[in-house]
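Hi U.,

Before I forget, here's the chain from the pilot set. I'm dumping it here mostly so it's searchable later in email.
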Amino acid sequence: MRNGFGVVRQLKPAPRISVSLLPIYSLLPWKNEALQSRPYASVSAAELQFGQPLHETHPHLLRPGELTPGITSLEYAQRRSRLASKLPKNGVAILAGSELKYRSGPVFYEFHQDPDFFYLTGAWLKELGFNEPEAVAVIGKAAAGDDHVFHLFVRPKDPKAEQWEGSRSGTEAAIDVFNADESGDINKVESSLSRIIGDASEIYTDAWPSGKSTFAFTRLFSSRSPSRADGLSKLLDQVTLKPLRSILNELRNIKSESEIANMRKAGKASGRAFTQAMRQAWTTERDLNSFLEYTFKRNGCDTSAYVPVIAGGKNASQIHYVRNDDVLLDNDLVLADAGGEYGNYVTDITRTWPISGTFNPSQKDLYNAILTTQRTCTSLCRANASNSLDKIHQIAEATLKDSLSQLGFDMSGNALETLFPHHLGHYIGLDIHDTPGQSRKAPLQVGQCVTVEPGLYIPDTDRWPAAFRGMGIRIEDSICVQDEHPLVLTTEAVKEVDDIEALRA
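Structure:
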């Protein structure tokens, strides 16, 4: 069956590449990528180079059937199928891969793929290039039934460029590796998009952040053909544009078993790194920062999930303190907010501990007030309790207010807002603040992953008890919601007072 999107195919349960062999001819540098027929050769896939690891080239990183660590090609195909099921007949979803960002001249920042694009394609495409979209994915639903077509536009193979920039996957790998139904050269995407958009009933995309006139690909088109860019903009004026964000949030909100397993791996590796750090004496924030980032990777993470906060003493009162360049004094606490990433899935941990290895009485009292709150709120992260993050936040506020009153704090007026100025938690997954815009008012569901992170930050002013002034304490874990109990993804990071002090005893 054909429609305006090309040949409609049934969902394929596995990638087109075999475990040990690939259609080699199509991936060699001298291959004419305009050709449609591809002979196959009995050459090991391990001899080929792609823009990202595959099981055939990196069996130490991926298992058979996995397109990215822990996630199979089938799961990515099922995600696209679920997205298509939410589109109207002849509806089209368009997603752009991230752009490579440059700090100066040819010096670039580390590439990070757009999470939505990655979620649906499994394509890291960590390839260097010009400041333009690295790839475009288009998912078009058929006019009848639930079939859909997956188009993937990427940069073609280029031996000369690859000598400098590293391997590219190329347009044929878009089909053979990433399971696209149709592929094309990103440099010629405007003609294909014009055809697809012209046949669409509705376009779902987040590529127009400020309206149609700021179409994200206009720069790509106009750099070569202003008339084509103008033509595409006019074509967009004739179709209904809708945001894709809410649909993707709904899909990404509930994690699969594979996603949870990846987050557990990241949590376990990161939690162990925290406990290893607490065993040692540190004299500077920078040294502790370096140790955590190195140990995340040594324990199995790919990289750090975000810029860490390593805040000694009064620095901990700045919630997003990231200078990490001060000295650590024996009488102070150090707050470390950091986490690793595995297979693009993140973990988020905060621990606070005494630099000397032993809490003084005031530090212990304030720490235990927060720990009690954190334990209580963690226990409520289960589906059968029908709590939302906002509801659990309210419980945290009440618990902290009562504990602080018992410690001699005047909790009148805006006291709690001053001492506890942030929300108790947020969603996590492919992003540290996952599914942007997702409401925290809805009851938690099985498969959602959240943080629980109560904290207190005591200003150094006369309003507050002298023994606690200047302290900043936060305790945070990553949690997966289950039906009857929470799954703590970061349990390896110790947090009980006795356990922390025993590490240095």
